[in-house]
């Protein structure tokens, strides 16, 4: 169970309470236009905000707490949906009947975002924070990035002896090949055939490594991996020993759990030196948003330095360049770039080819892993 | 109360029972038509949109759809769909086989023999049916999963566990155990109505215990076995939790997980395919329910309290008494005590692994976490509200349906009865998908989507037949002379029903409410497609927490569910003397 250290939250709230008012003496974040005051006033009149996401309440809590210190009059509700695509589906269904739906969508589903953009459902909103972000993080007008979360290796320390723990994909393949019989059904990852999340990661990985990636997959396939839909069960099952190791496991699902010392002794992890997938989580205001101004405030806050730090404390990996680890943040885009090198990072982003190649890729994936 | 098995009000060809005065027929007619209409709307609401979506070329809520039959072709050509069908039938078939075998054995052993502790075992044997398959799966996972406690012990001793839950037989084992109480209940109630003189005759003729069992008792149980087998097969087809928890990681897909994967969890939700598969499932279950009706005919319904002079004599086990006692104790320990116990233990630990000493991981953090995030207390509260409020509303509706169907001269009462029983043929997932579409389709209903009302409506619809099952037998036992007396005095049908029939039905209504409370509290499949922010229930948060890998939270929530249902069952039986099954 992931928890945020209570003292940490208290300490940070204190810092926030002392530090923020000075910077916002005018009631406006630094560098924001004066007209933003109207947005705030209207948002407070709206008074509520509904967010659809695939992030859990723990991920959101520091963000909402910090946000509510700035804008206490806005009641924020989040709905974390089990599948990344569901945010869009729910929104579209609800919009067609004019019932209440999301004011803001935050989900890691590049293909879903591409479709959503093609439907013309993304509000073209230029955030005052946009300047601070590089182009890869702003694929379409109005779509911004919440976090860039690394997909890492995890293993069970009692099953994978020290010195054998993989640091690169090549090492993972060597390790599993050496344990071929013992580890049958005991390795795990996301299935490209099950969730878009898994498809995006594997597609991007193959795009980087080409045939070598397929050859690696073929080696792993001999152990008959079991595919899970999200990182939580992978973490839980590797800890329990059901799986020995997992690859491309979303770091945000296991970092918070390492706060538990008993678990930290069992669960080991590593970045992937020869190709570190980074999943970009998008955030945008859908055109049907009923609380448009509240949504703008939240979006601006999420991509602001302070909002990024808050999501970092909630377990996500801040994507805004320049944000550094510390204060309860384990890693950020910048710190991972320093460790694995920016050239080894694989953006799981908004690749139109990924939509086009879906069927062909899946066919080969299923054949490789013998999935019927 | 007297027993009047054949006292159907339809005694005269003109539709009237007697030459009764018919005062103020207008009010009666209005109530009867109104309620019948409500029932029809309720039952049709989820079905019409599913059927409609299945012949559309794109999502219901999209613009510019046109009619097509291509979805059906696409479904059957869909890669791996043949395997899905095969898996579904193997899973349902094995589940039925296991549950019927266990249930029948238990009914004979606990109900008909002189085995020590038989009554207590019989009570414990029923427990899985009070809990949702979802909660049971988590319990089984903790004990018998690949890294479960007993699995690891078995690996140490035997070099490998003899079971694998991530397989069709493994899944069917869990489902079979959780459905065995159904077979047990049917066999037990059948055993109490069979004529003991047949067994006596066999004994007098010199047949021993096992010969009597084989030649007389079991054949007499056959209708009950066949009937509950069809029921369990249907449940096997509809089960979502077990295939989702154990089948999915191993790549085993059944029809429900196919629907879940393509409807809720998919990268590319295909509404046409989902609706078409739902229609297919609906069709299969319809056939099965029809078959069930045929197997039993209409005879059983009327035999409730049998007028028998003697109780059947228990079979004597002699030397086998204690060995069978041991086997039964082991069974109960392995299938009821261990999974629930492990679940409770997991709720109070941060992780459960033989690699870590228990003392290091004991914690109440799962419960404090549960209390801290609003969604969890809210889902518990919502489940309460839905079960209590929904239970009352559903009971009221069901009572009125029963009174109209069984105690009125309403012209369409036969049709109404049929409609009211139809939801038996609607799997929970299909009802959920259907209501989801219905609420997406009908303007003005959107406002209900984020409230618990949508769940109350869906649950009520889905469980009308269950409620009727609790109410109807009593109504059929009650002599129509009572309300007829009122009618003779000049009361109209509504007054007679309100002042005479319904108050007399009070015990049946309490039973109906209790059964619905428990059922609503553990229901999750119908809710999966319907819950929204603010209307989460324990079942949906359990599944969400599971997919997030929050096993501690799952266990804490499951513990709450077990506690509430346990308290409810105990109270209902101790205070109200409610029979929760049969």
TrEMBL record, chain A:
The protein's matches in Gene3D superfamilies, at most eight in alphabetical order, are given as: Periplasmic binding protein-like II
Supply the Pfam families for this chain: SBP_bac_1
Highest taxon of the source?
Answer: Bacteria
Q: Which SUPFAM superfamilies match?
A: Periplasmic binding protein-like II (SSF53850)
Keyword Glycosyltransferase attributed: no
Question: In its keyword annotation, does this UniProt entry include Signal?
Answer: yes
State the UniProt keywords alphabetically: Periplasm, Signal
Task: State the name under which the record lists this protein.
Answer: Extracellular solute-binding protein
Q: Which organism is it from?
A: Phreatobacter stygius
Q: What is the lineage of its organism?
A: Bacteria, Pseudomonadati, Pseudomonadota, Alphaproteobacteria, Hyphomicrobiales
């Amino acid at each position: 169970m992931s928890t945020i250290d209570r003292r940490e939250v208290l300490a940070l709230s204190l810092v926030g309470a002392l530090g923020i008012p000075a910077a916002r003496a005018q009631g406006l974040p630094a560098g924001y236009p004066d007209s933003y005051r109207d947005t705030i006033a209207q948002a407070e009149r709206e008074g509520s905000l509904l967010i659809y996401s695939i992030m859990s309440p723990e991920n959101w809590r520091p963000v909402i707490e910090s946000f509510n210190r700035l804008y206490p009059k806005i009641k924020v509700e989040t709905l974390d949906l089990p599948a990344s695509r569901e945010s869009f589906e729910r929104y579209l269904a609800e919009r067609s009947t004019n019932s209440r739906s999301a004011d803001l969508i935050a989900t890691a589903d590049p293909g879903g975002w591409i479709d959503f953009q093609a439907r013309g459902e993304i509000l073209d909103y230029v955030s005052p924070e946009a300047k601070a972000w590089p182009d890869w993080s702003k694929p379409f007008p109005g779509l911004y990035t919440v976090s860039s979360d690394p997909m890492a290796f995890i293993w069970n320390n009692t099953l994978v002896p020290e010195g054998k723990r993989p640091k690169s994909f090549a090492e993972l393949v060597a390790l599993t090949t050496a344990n071929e019989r013992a580890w049958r059904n005991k390795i795990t990852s996301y299935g490209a055939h099950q969730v878009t999340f898994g498809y995006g990661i594997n597609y991007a990985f193959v795009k980087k490594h080409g045939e070598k990636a397929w050859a690696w997959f073929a080696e792993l396939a001999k152990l008959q991996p079991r595919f899970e839909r999200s990182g939580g069960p992978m973490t839980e099952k590797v800890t329990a020993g059901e799986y020995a190791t997992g690859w491309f496991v979303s770091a945000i699902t296991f970092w918070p759990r390492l706060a538990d010392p008993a678990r930290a002794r069992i669960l080991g992890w590593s970045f992937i030196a020869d190709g570190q997938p980074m999943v970009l989580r998008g955030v945008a205001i859908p055109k049907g948003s009923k609380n448009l101004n509240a949504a703008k405030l939240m979006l601006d806050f999420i991509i602001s330095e302070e909002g990024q730090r808050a999501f970092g404390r909630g377990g996500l990996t801040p994507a805004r360049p320049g944000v550094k680890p510390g204060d309860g943040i384990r890693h950020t885009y910048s710190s991972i770039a320093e460790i694995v090198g920016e050239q080894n990072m694989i953006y799981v982003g908004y690749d139109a080819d990924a939509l086009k190649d879906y069927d062909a890729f899946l066919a080969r994936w299923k054949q490789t892993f013998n999935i019927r | 109360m007297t027993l009047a098995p054949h006292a159907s009000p339809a005694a005269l060809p003109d539709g009237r029972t007697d030459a009764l005065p018919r005062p103020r027929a207008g009010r009666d007619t209005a109530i009867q038509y109104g309620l019948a209409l409500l029932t029809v709307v309720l039952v049709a609401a989820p079905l019409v949109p599913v059927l409609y979506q299945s012949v559309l070329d794109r999502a219901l809520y999209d613009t510019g759809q046109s009619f097509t039959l291509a979805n059906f072709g696409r479904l059957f050509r869909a890669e791996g769909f043949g395997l899905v069908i095969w898996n579904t039938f193997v899973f349902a078939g094995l589940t039925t086989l296991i549950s019927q075998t266990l249930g029948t054995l238990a009914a004979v052993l606990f109900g008909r023999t002189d085995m020590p502790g038989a009554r207590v075992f019989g009570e414990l044997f029923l427990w899985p049916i009070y809990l949702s398959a979802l909660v049971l799966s988590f319990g089984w996972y903790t004990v018998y999963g690949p890294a479960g406690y007993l699995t690891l012990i078995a690996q140490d001793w035997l070099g490998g566990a003899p079971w694998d839950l991530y397989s069709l037989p493994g899944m069917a084992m869990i489902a079979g155990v959780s459905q065995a109480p159904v077979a047990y209940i049917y066999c037990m109630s059948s055993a109490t109505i069979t004529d003991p003189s047949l067994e006596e005759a066999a004994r007098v003729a010199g047949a021993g215990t096992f010969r009597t069992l084989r030649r007389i008792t079991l054949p007499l149980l056959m209708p009950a076995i066949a009937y509950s087998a069809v029921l369990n097969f249907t449940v096997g087809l509809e089960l979502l939790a077990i295939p989702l928890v154990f089948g999915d990681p191993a790549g085993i897909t059944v029809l429900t997980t196919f629907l879940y994967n393509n409807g809720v969890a998919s990268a590319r939700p295909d509404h046409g395919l989902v609706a078409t598969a739902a229609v297919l499932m609906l069709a299969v279950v319809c056939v099965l329910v029809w078959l069930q009706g045929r197997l039993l005919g209409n005879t059983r319904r009327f035999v409730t309290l049998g007028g028998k002079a003697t109780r059947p004599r228990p079979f004597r086990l002699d030397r086998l008494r204690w060995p069978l006692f041991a086997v039964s104790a082991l069974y109960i320990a392995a299938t009821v005590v261990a999974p629930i116990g492990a679940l409770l233990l997991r709720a109070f630990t941060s992780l459960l692994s033989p690699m870590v000493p228990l003392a290091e991981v004991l914690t109440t953090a799962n419960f404090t976490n549960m209390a801290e995030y609003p969604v969890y207390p809210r889902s518990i509260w919502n489940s309460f509200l839905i079960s209590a409020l929904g239970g009352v509303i559903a009971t009221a509706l069901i009572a009125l349906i029963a009174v109209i169907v069984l105690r009125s001269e309403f012209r369409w009462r036969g049709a109404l009865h049929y409609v009211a029983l139809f939801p038996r043929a609607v799997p929970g997932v299909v009802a959920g998908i259907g209501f989801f579409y219905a609420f997406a389709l009908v303007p003005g209903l959107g406002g209900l989507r984020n409230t618990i009302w949508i769940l109350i409506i869906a649950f009520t619809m889905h469980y009308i037949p269950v409620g009727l099952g609790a109410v109807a037998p009593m109504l059929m036992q009650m002599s129509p002379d009572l309300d007829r007396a009122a009618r003779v005095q000049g009361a109209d049908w509504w007054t007679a029903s309100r002042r005479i029939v319904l108050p007399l039905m009070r015990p049946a209504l309490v039973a109906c409410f209790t059964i619905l409370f428990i059922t609503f509290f553990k229901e999750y499949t119908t809710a999966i497609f319907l819950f929204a922010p603010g209307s989460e229930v324990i079942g949906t948060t359990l599944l969400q927490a599971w997919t997030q890998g929050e096993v501690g939270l799952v266990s804490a929530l499951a513990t709450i569910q077990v506690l509430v249902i346990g308290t409810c069952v105990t109270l209902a039986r101790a205070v109200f003397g409610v029979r929760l099954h049969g």
